[in-house]
Amino acid sequence: KMSWLWFYIFLHLLTVACMCHSIKAPTSSSQQSFKANLFNFYHSLILADGKETTVHLLKDIPKRYYFILEEGRALAPFTITVTPCDVPIEWSILMHKASASFLGKAAQGDHDTQEVSKSPKASSMVSTIFSYKGNSVETYMGMSSYSALYVLEFLSTERDTHITVYLTTDTTSGHLYPELPMDPRIDVIGIGHTTLTLTWKHSPSVLQHRENIQYCLLVNEKHNYKSLCAAEAAIRSAGMKLPPTLALSLSPYLLEPQQVMILSNSELSIINKVSSGEVQQICLGTKNTYTVPNLSPSTQYYFDVFVVNLLTNASAAYTGTFARTLEEPEPKVTMMKDGKVIHVVLDGKKQDYSLQYQARHRKIQFTFQLCRGQVQVHIAKNGKKVASENISGLRYFSLKGKLLDMYLVQMRSTEEYNSSVKVQVSPQFHKPLFPLLPETLKIKSFSKLRTCSSVTIAWLGTQEESEYCVYKKRIEEDQVWMELQSADRCSGPESRHRSEKVLCKYFYDINPQRAVTTETIKGLDAGMLYLFDVYLFGPSGIPVRYHSKVVKTRKKC
Predict the structure, then answer these.
(1) How far is CA 543 from CA 324, 365, 418, 496, in A?
(2) Looking at the domain covering 333-427, what would its CATH class be?
(3) Is there a contact between 309 and 205 (Cβ–Cβ < 8 Å)?
(4) pLDDT of 12 over the 80 cut
(5) Which parts of the sequence belong to the Fibronectin type-III domain (predicted)?
(6) 186-243+270-324 CATH pick, 3.60.9.10, 2.60.40.10, 3.40.50.2300, 3.10.20.30
(7) Mean pLDDT of all residues in the chain?
(8) How far apart, in whole angstroms, are the C-alpha atoms of residue 151 and residue 126?
(9) Helix (H) or strand (E) holding 491
């Protein structure tokens, strides 16, 4: 037997449908089909209690959801939270309250319902108890009666979008959404050229359910977001796919090719590279202070903090803030002198280092020897750029101009860690600082000539008679990457231990194709890794280091 409330919902939907269509009454067969479809329709739009519902809205097409109280419960409190995920929306709550005459007739049974349905206007009173327009997260709290039907109406007038709706009548079992503190603002407590330090007050939910709650920080250059849902929608609209839940996408296999995930010190950072810039999200666990690194100088950034329930994926947004990093300091300019070598160390914070030189000759030559990392070099003459290149190894720039031309050399590290480079400027006819170099600075090893106690290596020489010194160092498997990456290619044998020296020798060949030498290093341990280095010394005595070579001796012979 259908209760009076279920019948009332059916009656309301039927009345709305008839008012919308204004058509003749359908035939008996079509009427049965219509009622069946309407019954399925109203079932699909009943708002679930205690569950977050995703609602998809089409532009200018309203959508309605219905809410009724369980039979037998009177004057129960309930809350409804609506989270727009993209554009501002309009939404309202309508209460249809049954009249006393309708309640009496509905209670008599099905044979009276036809009479009631003939006068729907007399059977209920309709009132709007709440309405809102905007893109903020809004919550309505009220008292529900078993004699009332609630209708939630949603409308998007800008474009297709989606929202989330959460209804609950259970106020005793905790909150789906994490709680915000009394003061939900984000404070900026430190500003630098490339960093900003933020802090915020703890959510009460963190203090009560620490293991199930975490903070996620969103950083971007466009604007603040009022919900995590809105942030996801904005990134999607930029033409990028996201993992199912941005805040909880902790597994690398969920990331798209355009995403980079960085995990360090229990902090997860997902950087979404989109056409409009970078949107960076860092999930911090329960830390409520964080220094955002790797920002650009003199740039305004927007910061949003979301407290996330890991069990339900629901989140609440702190009041977003924005701040501007300090202006980039004027690059330090060092004057260069003919023939003098300057050793420049560049930090990984993208700060330029500048050198200035006033020419005393028409032809000059800049020499760069990369010691560590990778360096980008720009050379300008009288304000006009004449050379630009990423330096690798040893590089010469021969330039022509006029007497007293002013040259400006700007260098920047392209790595996150420090880079270093040696720079010299001199007239072209000046005695060269570095020795004549071979075609390649690679060291070759011969696998077939390896034994348990020796390896054979080879390297190219030049047409000039020069001194070559060989050094070896025993290393472990987990040291290989660090040794190769951290090697200072400008340092000479003076930085090596005496026990690492193998030999020094002179050689050259007038034919560059035949300027090759080999050396067999003996007295090694079986099955061990060795790092080999060759240093080339020219007339000036400044060494050039070949690229390090790692070779493993045979384990069994």
Answers:
(1) 46, 19, 22, 13
(2) mainly beta
(3) yes
(4) no
(5) 178-315, 435-543
(6) 2.60.40.10
(7) 79
(8) 10
(9) none
